[in-house]
Amino acid sequence: MPNKIWVFIEQFKGAIAQASLEAVGAARKLNSEMGGSGVTALLFGQGVQSLAQDVIAHGADEVLLADDATLNDFRAEAYGALLVKLAQAHKPEVILAGATTRGRDLLGLVAVDLNSGSIADAIRLKVVNGAIHATRPVYAGKLLSDVTCDERRPQLVSLRPRAFPKPEPDASRTGVITPVSAALAEEAIPTKVVDYAVEQGQVSLADAKIIVSGGRGVGGPEGFAPVRDLAQTLGGALGASRAAVDAGWIPYAHQVGQTGKTVSPDLYIACGISGAIQHQAGMRSAKVIVAINKDAEAPIFKLARYGVVGDLFKIVPALTTEFKKRLGK
Amino acid sequence: MHIVVCVKQTPDSAAKIGVENGHVTWRDASLVVNPWDEYAIEEAIRLKEKHGGKATAISMGPESAKEALKTCIAMGCDEGILISDPALKGSDALATSYTLAKAVEKMGDVEVVLFGRQAIDGDTSLVPVGVARRLGWPPLTYTSKIAELDPAAKTIKAERLLEQGKQIVTSKLPAVVGTVKDINEPRYPSFMGIRKAAKAAIPTWTAADLGCDPAKIGAAGSAMRWPSVYPPPAREGAVELIAGAPEEIAAKLADKLIADKVI
After folding, report:
1. Phi, psi values for residue B170, rounded to 5°
2. Consecutive sets of 10 residues in chain B, 263 residues long: mean pLDDT of each?
3. Which parts of chain A sit beneath pLDDT 70?
4. What is the pTM assigned to this prediction?
5. Listed residue (A275, A277, A280) closest to A292, CA to CA
6. Chain A interface test: which of B102, B123, B143 (most A C-beta within 10 Å)
7. Domain ranges for chain B
């Protein structure tokens, strides 16, 4: 009999999404606050049995494992149909997921069949009289909204990546792995995944602990070279402001901000970025912000912990050299 | 082809948003078409230009949302329809997707419904997938390119921008397509377009016109409750400016960042 606190485990090509492990941690906390009987993880894919033990090590007590060719890659229709079928059978109290593109789509989709509410992109969870009260940013983070589901169940909540701590794995943990079958045959799934054009070896912005970003001040595509060097030296991801993307200096996938990605790194280094409200919307929750800009009046200096008024083409390479020394590279 | 684009009217992205008496306010900041929706509107017009047919913009909102629909017409949509009714007030994503799906069903011959990625007020991005599920159509969210579309064969090939990079999918029409910024460059309304929009009659469809079940719309049809909204805690402290020669700055900054445990 599956437990009542469920977590959807997202995996891509055999790698579990960080946000899913963070969700397992959050689920454990909810489980103790709600007096639950344990955490059940849902793991769908093909050839992913070996991941189940890792999910248990991170805190799941049970894994409902669906291993099927139709689930080889996430497709909302296939994963949604299976999650709905399982949820209607076992009536969980809560289903958590990372608020990734897939996680948000999945919970938004199953909310319809389950006729329940989906809370997207929560940064904090509280339990009040047995119900979840989630805090989520609205108006691009200018305000926070506390939101809760009425009496409908399950409560579907996606968690903003890096807003919840990732649990430490404990290899000695044991749990039950229960196989389940896929819900839809391949012929019933209209969407087929043809291919991926994946940037190899890149740190994903949403998962990054460190992000180094370039803005209008880098002046051109070549100007990103020192910014990229610093990002690589620090093992971080490369970001950009809208100005740099619109100018065609770097692909949109790197854009941080209101019409780009929202990130929550430990460290955000903004190089030649003025810090317009729309950019701030995407990075204001970073733990430490460093701003490097020629213009002492740039709004970014109001947000930053550390600021350098100067030429990024002198400062950024100096930082790279210094960190190569400190990190022994 | 009949293409529908769903738009929302939101405060301008530069607006100062505050809370007064527990309610969100943006003072006298202007209301605009949700910035993400501009890409969806542009894509709707491009599909119409390429395949022929009609692009209809719809918006669920108060009377003021007619201005957003006029912007759609000025850019090149053929018509706009406002979905408005006191009974729709207090709708969450569940109730909104129900209502929008009813509107699409009422039109009957729609092949593609386009959405922007999310609305910059609620930021949930839940409505497009909800509409797709209710219509029983594929949810092609995060689409950065419609690579192929064949109305006769009823097929579509799209590139989607996911965390790991681009995913290329094929699927069937009719479909819901959620767009992201990379998909196109929205055009400015032409002078002729603005004149046409100013003269356009924009009908209003009520909940009854759509045949909505009262239990599924507005607050009654919503699962979400919003007990409070408030500004985030202010970031503490003023910036610490670091000066000196580049090497000195680098050394000082490295010390501090390592001490802060962010490196």
Report:
1. -115, 150
2. 97 90 89 95 98 98 97 98 97 97 97 95 93 98 97 97 93 98 95 96 98 97 94 85 96 96 93
3. 1, 199-201
4. 0.92
5. A275
6. B123
7. 2-216
A265: preceding bond cis by omega (within 30 degrees): no
What pLDDT, on a 0 to 100 scale, did the predictor assign at position A201? Answer: 60
Domains of chain A: 5-188 (3.40.50.620), 210-326 (3.40.50.1220)
Q: Which residue has the tokens 């092949």?
A: B111
Amino acid letter, residue A227: V
Q: How far apart are CA B139 and CA B128, in angstroms?
A: 7
Termini Cα distance of chain A: 52
Best of B13, B98, B99 to substitute, by most chain A Cβ atoms within 10 angstroms, is: B13
Contacts with A, B 219-258, CB within 8 Å: 222-232, 235, 237, 239-243, 246-247, 249-251, 253-254, 256-258
| Distance from C-alpha of A19 to C-alpha of A207, rounded to nearest angstrom | 8
Look at chain B and count its residues.
263
C-beta separation of A255 from A242 below 8 A: yes
Q: Report d(CA B102, CA A258) in Å as an integer.
A: 30
CATH of region B2-216, choose from 3.40.50.720, 3.90.180.10, 3.40.50.620, 3.40.50.2300: 3.40.50.620
In B137-245, which ranges are continuous DSSP H helix?
Answer: 191-199
The radius of gyration computed from the CA coordinates of chain B, to the nearest angstrom, equals 22
**Measuring CA to CA, how many Å separate B80 from each of B58, B66, B171, B204?**
6, 8, 28, 9
Q: Are the Cβ atoms of B226 and A301 closer than 8 angstroms? A: no
Q: What is the pLDDT of residues A95-130, one digit of tens each?
A: 999 999 999 999 999 999 999 999 999 999 999 998
Residue A21 has a pLDDT of 98
